[in-house]
Amino acid sequence: MAETKKDLPKGGVIEKGGTAHDYYTGGWRKLVPVVNKDKCTNCMICWVMCPDSAVIVQDGKMIGFDLEHCKGCGICAVECPDKVKAIKMEEEAS
Amino acid sequence: MATNTAMKKQTGLTGNSAIAIAMKQINPDVCPAYPITPSTAIIEDFSSYVADGDVDTELITVESEHSAMSACIGAAAAGARVMTATSSQGLALMWEMLYIASGMRLPIVITNVNRALSAPINIHCDHSDSMGARDAGWVQLYSETVQEAYDNLIMAVRIAENEKVLLPVMVCLDGFITSHAIENITLLDKAEVQSFIGEYKPERSLLDIDHPSTFGAMTLQDAYMTFKHQQSEAMTRAKDVVSSVSAEFAKKFGRNYGLIDAYRLEDAEIAIVILNSAAGTTKVVVDELRKQGKKAGMLRLRLFRPLPHKEIADALKNCKAVAVLDRADSMNDFGGPLFNEVRSALYDGETRPKVISRIYGLGGRDYKIKDATDVFDELSAAVKTGKTDTLTKYITL
Hints:
heterodimer, A: about 90 residues, alpha+beta, Alpha-Beta Plaits, two-stranded antiparallel sheet, 2 helices, elongated, B: alpha/beta, Rossmann fold, 2 domains, six-stranded mixed β-sheet, five-stranded mixed β-sheet, 15 strands, about 40% helix, about 20% strand, globular
């Protein structure tokens, strides 16, 4: 972000890439995805389908969700294969 | 002598052909186009230039004017020099995209061949189309003749791309009256046009993958108004840029255009304010009345956006009665758009003329010498009695 509002770039252009990472959309969430790692086969379909790149993968394994960016859309829970169904959408803890 | 340059290589051309030739000489990178009467021949001629390899332009044949303006915006954001042409319903269909083009500060140049808006459907000249777009954040230039339309289009490129402006520009000319009538005009060489407009160096390009950027992002309460303020200031600056580009054009090519065209106004008591081709008829009547010893004058606005309000006020301040003739109605029970703005521009003057609104020539209805004479007669009567008949009225009915 520019120093002052006067310095904002003409026409609302954002002058660098990857800025969506700095915008925390986790606050939009109503339902939170919860993964059962006993069932999960690490097929990575949830990682492919997540529109917010909020599925965290480490060393080839799905290890959870980036809740600062997950909007709780539930696509991961739907796309998790029928034989597995390792992801459930639950109410956010109040 | 400047006039030698101004008069060389005379040729007879319609407004549409002259605009197409200007586009050929400008050689834009991209031209998204959807033809519509009476601007069709511009795109028809220009597509021949594309097919013949006379230009390097990517001609995109789109499925509607909404898509045409959308493609203009995309191409301009990619850093291309972009042009198109339209009329009437075409401009109306571009409407939401017009605001996006200006808000994103993209220097797109379009020719709008003025034509009435439906309904009832009509293909002939009035200014309801471009007047409908008057708050869209576009610079608007109006052209009296084929020559001026051609010259305006070349200057429009420089105005739009000026770093102090970076706003889209619309060049308007009268449908059929100017677009289809053959007038004697002087063309520039392609090399002259190219050297005048120069190479376009966009500040940013979507295609610059080394410097990725986002165009058209959402802004909320903390920033939207700032961007609109920046845009408004750019529109204010555009006035001086139109002046300086026009002065440079006059110096190089000998044809001189001001922001306004004040005709025999110095000592005028009565005056008509008007846009585009109808100025010609009005000047004939002014000359006739002058022969009779009547102090008549005419003011034609070449620049309507931004409004040269100080110049208007200065030009009309000594008049006693003024009629503003609108070829469009605001449907507001209070006169046409030009009337309201000109009258408002005069409000702060020490002396204020009586100002009346007359709506003329809708849907291509002729505006004849007698019509202008009648208006001047009305103004003379107003000067004599100190009273105006009616504030707003349709003439040429």
